Amino acid sequence: MANPLRNKIGVIVDSFGVGVREGLLKAKDVGAEGVQIYAVSGEMDPALLDAAARRELRDRIDGLGLEISALCGDLGGHGFQDAAANPAKIEKSKRILDLAVELGTTIVTTHIGIVPDDRNGAVYAAMQSACDDLGRYAKSMNAYFAIETGPEPAAHLKRFLDTLGTNGVSVNFDPANMVMVTGDDPVQGVITLKDYIVHTHVKDGKRLRVVDPRQVYGFLGYEQMSHERIAEMASEGPDFAELPLGEGAVDFDAYFKALQSIGYEGYLTIEREVGDRPEQDIRKAVEFIKRYR
Length: 293
Description:
- With 293 residues, the chain is an alpha/beta fold.
- The protein is built from 11 helices and 10 strands.
- The chain has helices at 20-29, 51-63, 86-103, 122-140, 154-161, 175-182, 186-192, 213-217, 227-236, 252-261, 278-290; strands at 9-12, 34-38, 67-72, 107-110, 144-148, 169-173, 197-202, 204-207, 240-243, 268-270.
- The strands form 2 sheets. An 8-stranded parallel barrel has the order 1-2-3-4-5-6-7-10, surrounded by 4 helices. A two-stranded antiparallel sheet has the order 8-9.
- Helix 3 (86-103) packs parallel to helix 4 (122-140).
- The mean pLDDT is 96.
């Protein structure tokens, strides 16, 4: 690359599989500058973190010299496709964003469910209404809910985002999801979604055969989405495989160059959802990105 990368490197703490406190230490040890943390259930559920616990967590992260690149607020299931379930999910998402801002980040990443092709249907309307509400709330706090790429082609996601009243719902760009599931080109995807990208994942993988995204990410009438099931599919299934950086189909030379071309200055956050040696894989991923600096 002609110009060295200046982006900070993040790691999803949960990828280590050892809990938040130990995961923070491991993130520091592998050379990350920031961390993304799941904040949906368990020890990071906003409902279980009182003011003192939030201060203690922020002090712990600051004390390690780390930042939070984003929280993950992915509620799974059918995303925001089910209008009846949306009020509770919207409320929970807002509380996760409150926590994010209190911990010093302005980004919560999420999956909203696959955006359907039918723009006049009930599912599209439910998703649009939920995202409009969330976007306005995020915007009021100078923050973002960032939809992870992969369930639909970038151009289709952009058309949906363009219908919303604000850019408070934006994009967490994951190149591997696109390569593995929709077969979309991540480099063109970056250009297409350039006005919305606020956070990125660095992950690699390859597509083994054409798969219906609804079988992966869920859809009303199909199974609900779960990260556990996706990880199982990515490690043992016949459809796609998540791989260590540089071993899959993501062209990182071109991907990083595309991010530079749109002026993206945010985090490159490493995600590793499969494999029995996550720490080793993440350490190698940090070194992989550092070669571009």
